[in-house]
Specification:
The protein is mainly α. It is built from eight helices and no strands.
């Protein structure tokens, strides 16, 4: 169990990640615009590409210490819905929570001291209806207030997209 200094360090790391994503997303949007992709408008469940999450989005986030019930409530539920709208635009689950639970499991996996990249990728692949690009993975991680190393992010993105394509056949 991490000590208080480790928790503070992780909190600062998450806040810095959110700020970094907020600064990097306009570049990703411009790149997407050059390829013919159109950024989607904001949804009621979360920020749009034009309004990326910031430090306040992750304030009070306690990933890894939430009970099963807390994962699907309050501000974490808002985070999960925003991530789901990024991975499955236009999908309205109604009362179904399968996708949200898979995203909560992804969130939990990345909060572990040694996350399993293949397992994390499988959660994303099952939820996503759109290609899982490096920029989209970065955005989803920011929405869920989790972070990874560059190497692990690359592994998750590559594996998730391969699994998603395999399942779509």
């Amino acid at each position: 169990m991490p000590g208080i200094n480790e928790k503070r360090r992780l909190g600062v790391k998450h806040a810095l990640l959110c700020v970094g994503v907020a600064l990097a997303l306009p570049v990703a949007s411009a790149t997407a615009a050059g390829t013919g992709s159109t950024p989607r408008p904001a949804t009621p469940s979360g920020p749009s590409i034009a309004n990326p999450p910031g430090v306040a989005w992750c304030a009070g986030q306690r990933v890894g210490s939430l009970s099963e019930r807390e994962k699907l409530q309050g501000s974490n539920l808002t985070r999960l819905r925003a991530a789901q709208s990024e991975l499955a635009p236009g999908f309205t689950a109604g009362t179904a929570t399968t996708g949200l639970r898979l995203l909560a499991d992804y969130q939990d996996e990345l909060s572990r001291s040694r996350p399993d990249g293949v397992l994390a990728a499988s959660y994303l692949a099952q939820v996503s209806t759109v290609p899982i690009t490096p920029a989209r993975l970065l955005r989803v991680n920011a929405l869920l207030c989790v972070s990874t190393t560059r190497a692990l992010a690359g592994k998750i993105q590559t594996e998730a997209e391969a699994q998603r394509l395999q399942m779509s056949r």
